[in-house]
Amino acid sequence: MKILYTGVRREGYDSRRRGMSFEYQNFYRTLEGMAGVQVVEFLFDEIVVLGKKVFREKFLEAVSREQPDAIFIFMYTDELDADTLDRVRKEFEIPLIMWFADDYWRFWNYSRYFAPHATLAVTTSIQAFRWYKKAGINNVILSQWACNTRDFYPPADDVPKDISISFIGRRKPPRVRTIQKIREAAVEVEAFGVGWPAGRLSRDELLSISARSEINLNIADRPSLFSPRVLGRIFLRKSANRIVPDFHIVQNIQAWWHFRLPHIHARPFELAGCGAFVISSYVEGMENYYIPDREMVFYRGAEELIQKVRYYLGHDDERRRIAKAGYERTIKDHTYEKRFREIFSIIFK
After folding, report:
1. Would the pTM of this model clear 0.70, i.e. be above it?
2. What is residue 157's predicted lDDT score, i.e. its pLDDT?
3. Radius of gyration of the chain from Cα atoms?
4. 8, 199, 248, 293: most buried by Cβ count inside 10 Å?
5. Cα angle vertex 293, ends 292, 297, to 5°?
């Protein structure tokens, strides 16, 4: 099976300062390692040099040359337009699989306009899945983030637990408030990632921190709708690697309003795949992936979080049982290879 992979290789198209993008690390590298799959790249990054018009022509040339069995696109901005996508399906009769991220808000001003041009569109948002159906867009499936087992795995040996609680993720005001509340309750917690004093972690550092932590936190609190970065989405949008004015004000207000919705992150799947014990913000649908208090622990609000942190810090055996069960569930059901196999079973049935 030959798959033409299309997505961004470098975060924000920045080849100098940033590393590989999330989608390249998790989606392309998974396809690259799958038995029976040959993957060929055609990367969005080329648009910076070629411009949109030439990029789209080159994309169609690549489709004609490679004649893949399917095309997988991790949708980003406006690199590919509707006409180009429709030409692939009509002229080449090649299935288009399009994965949409952040549909909890992007549905309103992006995804719902592109999804109809896919053979199969994939969303990770349970709310957006309902919105697609309500809008009569029926070529959409609900999938989910997962664990890339090539990059996230348990330590080879027992590692001393010298960190009580850790949080790994970008520093944002709601996360700062949650971390502060834990500390005010006289419970030690360490934070890592962009914006925190410890800074961004490498993959190896992330594996080390998760293994050394008795409790690994996932915090899904959302930023204020009135922060400048969020308000700006009403008037601005990304176009490839640039920010440009956008005058679709009604759709943008709908997207802005839904930006407040909590959503499922990839981090809990990654941590569980490392064999770590995870306490996560509860987000609708998470119980479909991990059994609460048996495979992963969820909380609603800072007060409940503090109670659960104190409880599990004092119950080592229970914590280890849950971590083991979460790891086993991840390897069984929540790897990116598993996600791709499910998608391919639909496309090639």
Report:
1. yes
2. 85
3. 21
4. 8
5. 80
